[in-house]
Amino acid sequence: MSIPNFEYQVQWSDFTTRDSRPRGETEDAHIHVSFNTNYGIPNNDGEYSTDNVVLTIVMNRHRSWVVRSQKTASLLAHEQGHFDITAIGVREIHDALQYITGRSAGEVRSEAGRIIQRVQEAINETNIRYDEETDHSNIVNMQSRWETNLAAVKSNTNGVLSDLP
């Protein structure tokens, strides 16, 4: 599996510290995680397929922020959960991109784009559900449940977003 930063542990030094929430924000911290996708599409006697698939998870420190007075271990664990949700989704994309074939490079790229879009939507939906169910880490028992489930799914090499509660 080639997913740089999959096991990354976020730290408060990864966030821009603010004295107060940005205008219009209702949470005490925000993490911005994305990924870069790279793969080849060789032509094997008229059949095209993906190879050398690498997805790199990227934490955008300039778009990630925390309110200075709210830097707690529990809030950092919550932000790690958002990172892990993205990491699980990225692994799902990585695994799916391994098996794309088509009659043209364009066909392979289109299918890859559909997979990436579908899983990105699942990442977004899971992050929203995570925040709603934990009230941004304020419901301690739900936060603990999510942390346990995220760790189990992330450590399972076949774990996917739909395995989360």
Task: Give an overview of the whole structure.
This protein is an alpha+beta fold and 165 residues long. It has helices at 73-97, 105-134, 140-155; strands spanning 16-18, 29-30, 33-40, 43-44, 47-49, 51-59, 65-67, 101-102. It has a three-stranded mixed β-sheet, with no helix packed on it. Strands 4-5-8 form a three-stranded antiparallel β-sheet, covered by helices on one side. Strands 3-6 form a two-stranded antiparallel sheet. Strand 4 (43-44) and strand 5 (47-49) form a beta hairpin. The chain is elongated, with a radius of gyration of 18 Å. The relative contact order is 0.17. The mean pLDDT is 96.
In brief, what are we looking at here?
The chain is an alpha+beta fold and 165 residues long. It has helices spanning 73-97, 105-134, 140-155; strands at residues 16-18, 29-30, 33-40, 43-44, 47-49, 51-59, 65-67, 101-102. Helix content is 43%, strand content 19%.
Keywords:
3-stranded mixed β-sheet; elongated; 3 helices; 8 strands; 165 residues; alpha+beta
Give the topology string: H per helix, E per strand: EEEEEEEHEHH
Mind telling me the C-alpha Rg?
18 Å
Q: Main beta sheet, described? A: 3 strands, mixed
Number of helices: 3
Structural class call reads alpha+beta
Give the total of beta strands. 8
Task: Provide mean pLDDT, rounded.
Answer: 96
Strand fraction: 15-25%
Indicate the low-confidence ranges by residue numbers.
none
Helix content: 40-55%
The best one-word shape is elongated
Query: Biggest sheet: strands side by side, in what order?
Result: 1-7-2
- How far apart are the termini? 25 Å
